[in-house]
Amino acid sequence: MRILHFILVLAFVSGTAHAQQTAYQALRTLAEQKDRTYLQRVIEIRGDQGVPQPLVWKITIDDPSARGGVREFEMSGGRILSERAPVRILGGSGPRYVVSLKNLNLDSDGVFRIVNAVAKKEYVGFDSANYLLRADDSSGTSVWNVNLVDYTGTMVGTIAVAGASGTVVHTANMTRRNAANPNTFSGTMTEPADGGFAGRAGRTLNKAGESVRKGTLRTYDTVKGWFGGSTSQSGQNPAQSSTD
After folding, report:
1. Cα–Cα distance for residue pair 119/205, rounded to 1 Å
2. Taking a C-beta distance cutoff of 8 angstroms, is the pair 183, 194 a contact?
3. 225-230 — which CB contacts under 8 Å span 24+ positions?
4. Domain that holds residue 8
């Protein structure tokens, strides 16, 4: 059963990596295909089941003309999948909740690098990540909140990362994976390799899926240039500027 699970994970990661986009790329698609001014009204960016990036990003826009005051777009593979105007969203809406993208220096692939490093250090093995970018209620600064999830769907940790600096703001509920039996958990760990993305399967994924990882694990991608207008004039995409 464990071997079958690993094979499914490897096949899924290899087969869907080409469709994965970062949050920045989804935002750029929305601006180009819909309305560039939406970038000034983003309330939240959400993506679930990222391995390491989600297949679908949900971008919520502040829109006073819409019922409930917001408009939601689902993005995947460089296109808009859906658009709707929900009655309400969790976390509130309005100008005070808008994320300042000009001060956002960390794309979702950079966030993954950070949370994966924290998970390895804490010996927390995870198989997917749920991303949420919102403005902090007290400071108004952008914060990435990432929930780490194991293969059973159980959340094994939460890591908050500042969108401007990449600083880890806090961690919570970090659950170490038991080295003797990766299907159980305990407070002790003897194999550091069991921490990080895909847990034990990560050791083989690091070899067989290296090309997949190189396409998604990049250094800090400064998106401020394009959102501020300077990069768009040259046509350069900051999210594709460097690779590990």
Report:
1. 16
2. no
3. 226/28, 227/27, 227/39, 227/101, 227/102, 227/104, 228/102
4. 2-221
Dist. CA 146–CA 86, nearest whole Å: 24
Phi, psi at 63, each rounded to 5°? -145, 95
pLDDT tens digits along 82-126: 999 887 666 666 677 899 998 899 999 999 999 999 999 999 999
Cα distance between residue 221 and residue 243, in whole Å? 10
Q: Are 125 and 163 in contact (CB under 8 A)?
A: no
Largest CA distance in the chain: 56
Three-state DSSP at 49 gives: strand
Give the global pTM: 0.74
Q: Which two tokens stand for residue 78?
A: 């460089």
The verdict on residue 88 lying in a domain is: yes
Rounded CA gap, 42 and 67, in Å?
Answer: 16
Give the whole-number percent of the chain exceeding pLDDT 90: 49
Return the HEC string of 101-135: HHHCCCCHHHHHHHHHHHHHHCCCEECEEEEEEEE
Question: Is 239 inside any structural domain?
Answer: no
- The number of C-alpha atoms within 13 Å of 238 and in the hemisphere containing its C-beta is 26
Question: Which of 224, 221, 225 lies closest to 239 in space, CA to CA?
Answer: 221
4 contacts: CB under 8 Å, gap ≥ 6: none
Domains contained in the chain, number = 1
Instruction: Give CA–CA dist 200/125, Å, rounded.
Output: 7
